[in-house]
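User: Just a sanity check before I run the rest of the batch. Below are the structure tokens for the first item. I only need the designed sequence back.
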């Protein structure tokens, strides 16, 4: 029987199946952070259950941490309590923690791949919706709720229904100014935020085959914004080269054996999917969102569409925008380049290349927030910090930062922020904040100009 990439990985991790019901799925790696793990640890405590496999867990502090003065005691009471509780729980249960100050600390979906923890053919879960990021390696990776976090703690397994399969193919040549973020925003704008509901999506075609691993991570990161359970891209030589040599990746003969297995994972020729979509890369241009969900996106040069739908009208009212108008040349006051979507070294290289020799608009507050301590170190090693600082950008320490209004880096009410994060929901970046999702280069260009510009028109 011909199988998809998703089928191969899922089926190889089934411990047991309930007839006409869910599967018991074995989980290879469990990633945790300070926000969604305390309640799950409390469940173990209350029920007197041991943590089954602490060596399969990787912990870090990222969501609710300050991005300034991380060497000092945390001032915010909630953040301090969450980080302290994570530290205590990891010490008590023998979990490996990369806390503030550790050289491996960072956003959970950035450190997993860069440390070689994430490898093809795995199942990976985390109490965070954007766990889908790891699917770029040909893994089944998805977010879980707190009760499921406790379930994995206790058994290293999950009771889950197998999703349907979908393939999204993008073929052809991309415009040179189009980035991976533009590709996924384009796909979501065409399919909508519920097209992937109940599915795992495989991204296929020459565009993804030619994409770097960091670009693939951006795409899979946002697969859930089209309603999917997760996204995957078949492992290939690009994947193997990225994984090889990383801290916790296999070495020597073990690596060769692993690669031999990883080469068997791609979808078999002729395997069928429940749903398929295809797009032409030539149609894609730099994208930006105008509404309050990631599906409300347009090419920067286009006009905002119109609709009589009440939720559409509500979104435009919240954003202070009108149907038929353009976002091009609209003034903005904030820019955020970071988050688990776009805080890897390639993102900052692309932004710095555009910024170099230019000066940030005096009317814009612009944050550069690396996704990990290793990325922060590389920014300095490559001299990108000098580029950002000379242009007037603020370089912060690693964390989720202004992606979500859970830490100190909030966007003021009514302000427009061009953000490289993944969600533009009402209040996502701060109460009343207005978020415009875009690529790192589009965000950098907006910071320089003080308004939205189309980099493909320059």
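Assistant: Here's the designed sequence for the first item:
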């Amino acid at each position: 029987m011909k199988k998809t990439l998703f089928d191969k990985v899922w089926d190889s991790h089934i411990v047991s199946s309930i007839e006409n019901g869910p599967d018991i799925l074995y989980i290879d790696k469990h990633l945790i952070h300070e926000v969604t793990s305390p309640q799950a640890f409390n469940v173990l405590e209350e029920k007197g259950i041991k943590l089954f496999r602490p060596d399969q867990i990787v912990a870090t502090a990222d969501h609710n941490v300050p991005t300034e003065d991380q060497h000092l005691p945390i001032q915010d009471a909630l953040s301090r309590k969450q980080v302290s509780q994570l530290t205590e729980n990891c010490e008590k249960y023998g979990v490996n923690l990369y806390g503030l100050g550790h050289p491996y600390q960072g956003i959970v979906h950035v450190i997993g791949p860069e440390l070689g923890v994430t490898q093809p053919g795995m199942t990976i879960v985390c109490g965070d919706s954007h766990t889908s990021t790891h699917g770029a390696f040909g893994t089944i990776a998805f977010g879980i709720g707190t009760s499921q976090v406790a379930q994995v703690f206790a058994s290293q397994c999950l009771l889950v229904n197998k999703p349907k399969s979908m393939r999204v193919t993008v073929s052809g040549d991309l415009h040179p100014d189009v980035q991976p973020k533009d590709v996924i925003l384009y796909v979501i704008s065409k399919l909508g935020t519920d097209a992937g509901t109940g599915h795992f999506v495989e991204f296929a075609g020459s565009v993804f085959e030619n994409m770097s691993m960091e670009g693939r991570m951006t795409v899979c990161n946002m697969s859930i914004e089209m309603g999917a359970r997760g996204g995957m891209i078949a492992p290939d030589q690009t994947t193997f080269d990225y994984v090889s040599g990383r801290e916790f990746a296999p070495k020597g003969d073990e690596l060769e054996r692993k690669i031999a297995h990883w080469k068997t994972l791609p979808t078999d020729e002729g395997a069928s999917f429940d749903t398929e979509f295809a797009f032409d890369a030539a149609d894609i241009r730099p994208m930006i969102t105008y509404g309050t969900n990631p599906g409300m996106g347009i090419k920067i040069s286009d006009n905002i569409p119109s609709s009589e739908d009440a939720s559409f009208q509500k979104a435009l009212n919240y954003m202070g925008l009108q149907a038929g108008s353009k976002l091009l040349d609209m003034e903005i006051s904030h820019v955020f380049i970071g988050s688990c979507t776009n805080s890897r070294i390639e993102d900052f290289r692309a932004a710095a290349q555009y910024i170099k020799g230019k000066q940030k608009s005096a009317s814009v507050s612009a944050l550069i927030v690396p996704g990990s301590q290793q990325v922060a170190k590389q920014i300095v090693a490559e001299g990108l910090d000098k580029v950002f600082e000379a242009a007037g950008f603020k370089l912060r320490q690693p964390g989720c930062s202004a992606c979500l209004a859970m830490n100190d880096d909030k966007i003021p009410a009514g302000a427009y922020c061009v953000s490289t994060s993944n969600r533009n929901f009402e209040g996502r970046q701060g109460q009343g904040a207005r978020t415009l999702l875009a690529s790192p280069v589009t965000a950098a260009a907006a910071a320089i100009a003080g308004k939205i510009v189309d980099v493909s028109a320059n």
